[in-house]
Automatic annotation (TrEMBL):
The chain crosses the membrane at residues 34-57. Keywords: Cell membrane, Cytoplasm, Cytoskeleton, Disulfide bond, Glycoprotein, Membrane, Signal-anchor, Transmembrane, Transmembrane helix. One of its GO terms (cellular component) is sarcolemma. It is found in: Cell membrane, Sarcolemma; Cytoplasm, Cytoskeleton. GO terms for biological process: cardiac muscle tissue development; heart contraction. Its main location: membrane. This is Sarcoglycan delta. It is a single-pass type II membrane protein. The gene is SGCD. Belongs to the sarcoglycan beta/delta/gamma/zeta family. Pfam families: Sarcoglycan_1 (PF04790). It comes from Saimiri boliviensis boliviensis.
Length: 290
């Protein structure tokens, strides 16, 4: 209990006055009980706060080097195990431990932005559940030695590999023209150039060479196959040249039926067969040229 101070005030004796008067100075009564209650409550709050602080330090694994899976080293911050960032992360360099892979996991997508001094996005890479998108002025893929394998920009797409292989069952579709010095199939595989609904045109300033060294070569069209040489000639060089579906003339000479024919050319360039005779029989079968 707080002692009550007693103050004795001595006055000069006066006629008719009593002895010295005593005045009580201090806190007493219900004020003293309220003061003790608030002091006790403050001590309880301090103890609870201290206990909660110690519990948080224990749960979060606070040490001199860091907290939890986060460690502070001379080279920077070191995270051990899985880490989750709910806000943007700004760092100069992020690398994994030696010999371990670095994983980025997200429930929706992972976006990597490259900004300039004015915080404007220059390059952006978005990996989402449906597609992987890259935005930038130029996209390049190189080998470890620095050789260019693939490059794409607004003007052109460059494939720097020695061989471009397309494994699709339907082949390769080019809506526009294609420019290449050589088109060939894999060994023991056939090469097919096909245009199902349009024409197929092959042009070269110094000639077009079609070569099948170990097999047949076939050119098929629905309406018209045209071989044209403006300044040169068309040469068919083979041991046998067959035109099996040429029309036949109706002329039949008297005597034994022969198996020898001559090739006739109409004014419009059409070819037909006419059974050979002692002289030319092309004039007799001019009805084929109509």
């Amino acid at each position: 209990m707080m002692p009550q101070e007693q103050y004795t005030h001595h006055r000069s004796p006066m006629p008719g006055s009593e002895g010295p008067q005593v005045y009580k100075v201090g806190i007493y009564g219900w004020r003293k009980r309220c003061l003790y209650f608030f002091v006790l409550l403050l001590m309880i709050l301090i103890l609870v706060n201290l206990a909660m602080t110690i519990w948080i330090l224990k749960v979060m694994n606070f040490t001199i080097d860091g907290m939890g899976n986060l460690r502070i080293t001379e080279k920077g911050l070191k995270l051990e195990g899985d880490s989750e960032f709910l806000q943007p992360l700004y760092a100069k360099e992020i690398q994994s431990r030696p010999g371990n892979a670095l994983y980025f996991k997200s429930a929706r997508n992972v976006t990597v932005n490259i900004l300039n001094d004015q915080t404007k996005v220059l390059t952006q890479l978005i990996t989402g559940p449906k597609a992987v998108e890259a935005y930038g002025k130029k996209f390049e893929v190189k080998t470890v030695s620095g050789k260019l394998l693939f490059s794409a920009d607004d003007n052109e797409v460059v494939v720097g590999a020695e061989r471009l292989r397309v494994l699709g069952a339907e082949g390769t579709v080019f809506p526009k023209s294609i420019e290449t010095p050589n088109v060939r199939a894999d060994p023991f595989k056939e090469l097919r150039l096909e245009s199902p609904t349009r024409s197929l045109v092959m042009e070269a300033p110094k000639g077009v060479e079609i070569n099948a060294e170990a097999g047949n070569m076939e050119a098929t069209c629905r309406t018209e196959l045209r071989l044209e040489s403006k300044d040169g000639e068309i040469k068919l060089d083979a041991a046998k040249i067959k035109l099996p579906r040429l029309p036949h003339g109706s002329y039949t000479p008297t005597g034994a039926r022969q198996k020898v024919f001559e090739i006739c050319v109409c004014a419009n360039g059409r070819l037909f067969l006419s059974q050979a005779g002692a002289g030319s029989t092309c004039q007799i079968n001019t009805s084929v040229c109509l």
